[in-house]
Each structure stands twice: as structure tokens, then as C-alpha cells.
Amino acid sequence: MKRTPPAPLSVWRTLNLDEFLLGVPHYPEHVDESYWQRDAQRIAAAGFNVVRLGEFAWHLMEPREGVFDFSLFDRAIDVLASEGVKTIFCTPTATPPRWLTASYPEVLRVDERGRTATHGSRQHADTNSPVYRMHSRRITEALARQYAGNPNVIGWQTDNELNTTASTSYSEASEREFRRYLHDRYETIDKLNLAWGGNFWALAYDSFDQITIPRKDNPGFVAPGHMQDYHRFLAHATAAFQHDQVEILRGANPEWFIFHNLGRLEDVDLRGQFGQDLDFLGFDIYPMLYDEMRRAGGHPATQALHLDVCRAYSGNFIVPEQASGFGSQPGFSTMTPEPGEMRRMALSSVARGADGLLFFRWRPAHFGAEIYWMGIIDHDDVPRRRYQEAKQFAEDIDRIKKDLLGTTVRMNVAIAGADFDNQEAYRTYPMGMPSPLEDGMLLHRYCYSKGIACGFIHPEDDLSRIKVLYVPHWVMWKPEWNENVEAFVRNGGTLIVGAMTGTRDENNHIPTDLAPGPGLSKLCGVRVEEFGRVAEPGADGLFGLHGTEFGFHNPAKRLPSSSASRRHRFTLGNREHEAAHLYELLALDDDVEVLGQWSNRFASGRAAVTSRKVGKGRACYVGTYLTEPLVEGLVDHVLGADVQPLVPDLPPAVEVVLREAEDRKLLFLLNCDAEPVEVTSLPAGIDLLSGKPVNGGLALGPYGCAVLRVHL
């Protein structure tokens, strides 16, 4: 396997490996050694080329402080290698051994209520602790020395799903490190007071030593700047913790690739040092882990959204953990993939940017907090349908990998994403409004259902490859993005800017320039003179919203309000729409075209949706939040030819994605339903999975898949 230096982070980046990583996380320490050879033989027979080892086994590698014993893993690596299977090793720092937490209790995480974590789970150590960082460096150095010359260890995963169990800590060590971070960032306490708005509510400090970690509702709301900087600090500290390990591993063997497996995107700035340190990123994909009732389109649409959000940070990625079956921990359980569905979900991951995939896990555990989390083989050591599907998927990859590697995912419609500051700025001051991701997912969901090439992109990336850019109320619009976005519009692109964009600066202050700020105001030809809250369509009052995983939100406590009768409506084309969450009143430049007007109450006759020609393209502004009907209206009256589906007349249950390079195009067609379906109006090509020519139509069985090499 050949590794080349990684390209800069971008949604268009491909992996820097010349082989598709395919395999399983494997835990030889969970079974008797008599199983190992048979496991290795069956892993190889399935068509896998790698396993992932060691992420939770620090206690075996260092049973006593300073006493290292890698013999178990030495033997396991050799057994796997005897069958041609290489190893990705992990730094085991998600689960420190008991001797460490007993001897150095100051390394334990402290929660918001002041409770010190106890030993007995994972991620209970505080990665901000200098003592814990020292011990994590020690075990990483020992591992690097042990395997630097072992040709069967080809790469590394740092830790395991950093910040997934917990990202915050309120320990004394965290507070000290937070103050040090703030001192480095602001240099003087006066600069910090200015940034945090110290003259509001007497929030000014006399020295950095007075600053504490912010706690929500203790008793009231925290200054937005204080909260934003705390989460910036957590991301900085997470990157520093990983950087220690990366430096050690790179120094031991520069040929190793290094990645991390993200679970939740919590307090990790993937476009910052964290992502820049790595060869590529890994994202763990469990489509059935999420509440399907809250996600229109069910788990296929949710998986697509998750993958597209992740790809915006890094470009192509690997999936170090891909769901293979029923999963559970004591507090939850998932749905179970039906026959054929495991393979379909894996091919969906590949279609949307995965250049490597490991099914979680090889065999299920017989003890611990995941005893019902199924693997490729069953508890009785018998390989059944999941093994056969994994083997079929390996055969699929073998047929397509030559054409697949080096391709990127087509996007015609792109939603602004992958910006840590905007994600956190929303959380500091949500006002009961949807998050940018919640707003953008309405457009993504529409495109997914229609087979339109859609994804997420950062404004600093190459925009020339997309046709539409939607900005979902990014409150912190940074001036350095203006030039790239204006060039995109002048060269023929369509920009749509959502309400509330550009309403704050990087300190969460409101600028004196009217939103959306000098650059976007000039580009769109609009300035927001007034804004106000409206009830959600169909609601009888305003709702407060509380944050949950991945930036999605649930309605919570109903707030007393008489605003249910104050509905704001606007026309777009020949249809009247009900505004969602917010209205804005716009002042327009002379060359701005009004596409939609407010149609009732005091706003009647004022512009709600606008368009301004700029060069070969146009910049549009929408003075409210998206709804499903509004998305359809924008498609009909603004986007038009820019949002044609990849395949006309696509059946509802079929997912379609295009991966492409300059010399080839691969059209993925994935039946997400248990019923067979016929796809028509297809371009001529070859189905690489079956080897059969396709011209016009194709039958897909239950959860059936095809990958067409086509000319479009």
C-alpha cells in the first residue's frame, strides 16, 4: 500500500492511499487464543485486507506503570499476517487502566454538576489534564517503538471517537488550561473584556485568574463570547491532545497513515489543526442509530445527510465502523438491517465518499456494555447472512475500486457547512430557532428525494464545480470568504443567502453594518432593516428548542405567546407561503429584482425573496427560514435548470449518487426498499457489479445495487 502526502483539506480531496481499506475492527483479547487462526482465515476469505486492533486495551499493554507487554498483540498481528491481513493499530487512550486513574485521580473528568467521573466506562479521563497527556504520550511512544519496524502494521487510528461520550470537563486542570488558552488568545484582560462584552451585566474581569468555565443556567444565560471561547478551547485542547500522538507516530515511521474515527462532531474543529494533522478523517456510520420518526425519509436519508455533512470537512474519508447488524448499549438499541440492507448501507457510504470501510465488528462481545451489538459472525462463532453480505460487498469493491479511487462526489447544489465557529455561534445564542444544519437539511432532503446531486461545502473551497450555493443563516460571515463567493457568482453560479446571515462578528457582537454585512449586502443588493419572530407554520405558539446530537433539535417547552395569530405570509410565483420562525424587512438597491413579496400585515408589499444579476450568475436573498414548500418554490422559481436530477423519473426508494474524475463517471443506484424496483431513463453504461451492459432501464431487487460506468 502506497501513501503520498495528503492534500489540503477540502470537500474535493481524495484519499492519499492507492488501496481501498476493507475490513473489520477486531478484538482478539475478547476470545481464547484458540479462535485466532480460524478468525484470520475467515477474515481473509471474506476478502478483507485490514483489521483495526487495540483501541481499548491499554490495561493489557501496560499492566503496571512503566511495565509494557505487547505480546498478545504481537501474536495476533502475526496470525493475521499469516493470512495476508494487515493491521491498523489504535492508541488506547479512550480507556486508561485502573492503576492510572487510582494513582493519579486528578486525570478524571468532572461534569457540569461537579461530579468526578468514576472508573468503569470510557472517556472518563480528562484530555485537558497535563498529567493524562503525559501518560498518553508514554503509551504512544511505547507502541511506536514496538511497531515502527513491523511491516504488518500499516497505519494508526488516534484514540477512539474523541468527545463522543463527553466533550466538556469542569475539572481544575481544565479550568487552568482554559485560562492559559484565553491568555494566549487575548494577551491582556482588557482585550478579553472587550471581546466578551464585559460592560454588560458587569461581566468584566480584573485578571485571567478570575475566569471560570461557563455553566449553563447558573443561574442565567452566559455571555455568548464566554461560551464560544470555551468551546473553541475544547476544540483546541482536543487537537493538542491528538497532536501529541501524531508527532510521536510520524517520528517513528513516516510511512504510516494516521486518521481518527469521529462519532459525534462535538467540540472538534475538523478544518483546524485536528484535521490538518491527519492523512484523512474517518467517520463511524450507524444509520439505524437515529430516531427515524424525527428524520423524514428514514435512515437512508439520514445516512446520506450524515455522510454529506462529514465529507464537507475533509473530502473523501474512510468509515472505520460501518453498522453490520443490530446494535445496543444498556440505554438504547437500534433497528436491525434486513437481508441485503447491510450491503446497501455500505455501498451508500462508498457512493458518498468512503474510500475505505470496516464493518463493526468481527465478532460480538460476550461481556461488557455491548453484549448485544452484533458483528459479522454470531455469538456461537457461526458466520451467517451478515458474513455473506460482507463477502459480497468485498467482491463489489474488488470490481469497482480501480475506477472508484481518485473520484469525488458530484455536487450541483451545495449547502454551506463545515465551519466550527458558525456551529458554535448558533449554540451560544439559539433563540429557539433552528440550527443552520436543520435549515439546510430541508434543502438536502428535497434534493435527496429527487435524485439531485447535493452536499455541503465550506465557502473557502473551490466553488467552480457547483451550480448553487445556499448559505443557511450563518451568523458569522467572514470577510475573507467574499472574494471566492463573488467569483463563483460572476462565473455563473447561483447564490442564495438565508435570513440572519452576517448578523454577528467573531466575538458575537452585532456589527454597526446592517446584515448580511458589507460583502454580501453589496453582492445581493439588500440590507436588513428590521426582523422579528413569527410562529412556526401550523403552530399555535412559539417553541423553545434545545440542542441534540449533530445539531438537530427537538421541540421542547411551549412558551406563552399571543403570536400564533401573527402569521406572516408571502408570495413566490403564484403560490402563497407561510413564513417560518422569522421575517425580515429588506432595503433594496435599484438593480435588485423582487421574486417574492410579503402579502399581509404591516410587511405587505415589501420584498421577501430577491435576486440580483452579477456577471453570469445571480445572488439571491431569502428573508425568512426554509420550509418544505419554500424549498419547492425556490427550485421552481430560482434554481430551475441548475437542479436537474441525475436520473429522470427516479423511483422514490432509489438513491442515486455520482462519483467522478476527469476520465470516468460512476453512477450509484441503490434500492433502499425491500421491494424490487425498475429504474428507467438511464444512460448507456456498464454495471460494474454484474458486468452487464445497461441502456435505458435496470431492475433492482430488494436492497439491490448497481454501479454504472457511464458517459454523461
TrEMBL record:
Listed name of the protein: Beta-galactosidase
GO biological process: galactose metabolic process
Family affiliation: Belongs to the glycosyl hydrolase 42 family.
Span of domain Beta-galactosidase trimerisation: 444-640
GO CC terms in record: beta-galactosidase complex
Chain ranges of the Beta-galactosidase C-terminal domain: 654-709
Binding residues for substrate: R122, N160
Active site: E161, E321
Keywords associated with the record: Glycosidase, Hydrolase, Metal-binding, Zinc
GO molecular function: beta-galactosidase activity; metal ion binding
EC number in record: 3.2.1.23
Residue ranges constituting the Glycoside hydrolase family 42 N-terminal domain according to the UniProt record: 27-399
Enzyme class: hydrolase
Organism of origin: Sinorhizobium glycinis
Reaction(s) the record says it catalyses: Hydrolysis of terminal non-reducing beta-D-galactose residues in beta-D-galactosides
